[in-house]
Every structure is written in C-alpha cells, then in structure tokens.
Amino acid sequence: QGHLVESGGGSVQAGGSLRLSCTTSGDTSCLYSMSWHRQASGKEREFVAYINLAAPSTYADSVRSRFTISQDNAKKTLYLQKNSLKPEDTGAYYCKRVSCLGDHWGQGTHVTVSS
To answer: Which residues neighbour 112 within 8 Å (Cβ) at sequence distance 6 or greater?
Structure first.
C-alpha cells in the first residue's frame, strides 16, 4: 500500500507563498485521485483541492485562484502551490490518495500564516 509523506509547511506572513509536497512510496497502482485537505485548530478537516487525470482540478471556494494543485507522476509527488496566503489558511494540511487499495492519508504538515 502507498505511504504518503507531506512536507513544505512552515510559517509565513500574510501575502506570502508556500509549496506543499506529498510523496507516495510503496504500491502506487490503480490510482483514482489525490487531494489536499486542511484542519484548523478546533475545527473539522475540510476539503481544499482535488486532482485526477480524467477531469479538471477542483478547489474550495476559499482557495480558488490562490492555490494550485499539481502532480509529478514520475516523482510520485503531489503539490499544492499556495499564493496570497491569509491567516485563515493556517492549519494542518493533509494529502489523501484514493485508489483501488482504499483511501490513504498522510500525517500532515502544518502551516502558520501571520498577519
């Protein structure tokens, strides 16, 4: 089964940028889709962005036009380019992989955006 590891989190001022990465190891066969989700302190995990090869990428309204999801199949890595960051983008970011083997989540990487 694929193992997911996120990286790229950190602290940034409002208006800044970060790029998150999610690298898959192990079995990466029969992939259906990948996505990013986030969870702010004291809140439920929420959807951020989604990608698969058969349809256009989709985004939460709160991040559309600021975030871009992409993937490098050769590197087995999913990315989330985050621009024009806002304090409300603060939280733990998780990648999710959906395949014929089931749903798998990474351990998360934390982003703090200060005003």
So the answer is: 10, 11, 12, 90
